[in-house]
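User: quick one, fold this
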Amino acid sequence: MVTLQKVRRDAPWKWLKDGWADMMRARRVSLSYGLIFVGVGVLITGGLWLLGLGAIAPVALSGFALIAPALAIGIYQVSRALERGEVPRFRVIISRFPDRITQIAFLSLLLLLLLMAWVEIAQFLLVIIAPGTPLSPGPFLEFSLSEPAGITLLVLGTLIGALLAGLAFSISAIAFPMLVDQDVDAVTALVASVTAVRRQPFVMFTWAWLIGFMTLAGTAFFLIGLALVFPWLAHASWHAYKDFSPSASDSPASA
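Assistant:
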C-alpha cells in the first residue's frame, strides 16, 4: 500500500520555483546535462532532415519527450545531493547510480513501449489517411493546414499523442524520483505516481500542462531552450515527488 501527502493546489508553481533554485545552485552540471539532452534531439532532427523526413520530426521529438522522465535520472540525483548538503558534480551522477537499476530499467521499458506505440500509430495514420504525402516540411505543412485529410491527420495525431503523453505522465510523474530515493520496486513507484494523479487531478493536470507548455516553448527556440527547460523541469519533478512524500508500508525508505 502506498501513502501520499496531500499537496496545495498551487504546488506546481512552488515546484518550478524550487527547481529553478536547485538548477542555479548546480548550474554547471544541470545545464551541461541539458545540453546533452538537446544534442540528442538535434541528432534526431538533423538525421530526419537529411533523409528527407523533416515533416515527421515533431512526431519523433514528441515521442522523445515521452521517455524524458527516464533520461532525467541524473538530475534527480543532483537534487538529492543538494538536499543532503553535498556539492553537486558529475561524479554524483556517474558514481552513485541508483541501486534500483533493474527497477528503473523496467519502468523505462514501459515508456519505451509507449514511444514505439506512438511511432507505429503515427505511421498507421499517415498510411491510412494520407498515403503518398511528401514528407518534406514545406509540402507536408501546406497539406496539413489546407487539405481535409491533412487536417484530419493533424487532429487525430494530436489527440492520440496527448492520450499517450497523459498515460506516460501518469505512470512516471513521481515514479523515477521515488526509485532514485527509496528502496522500492517499479510497480510500487508506478502505483504511487498514478495514485497522485488520481487523488489530486487538478494539481497534476496543472503540472502536466506546465510541462507541456514549457517543453513546446523550449522546442520553439530551435531546441536550445530545452537545455534550460529540461533540467529545470527535472529538478522541479524532484520537488513534486518530495511534496507528495510517497511511502510504501512494506518497503522501507533508503537512507
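User: anything notable?
Assistant: The CA atoms of residues 48 and 54 lie 5 Å apart.
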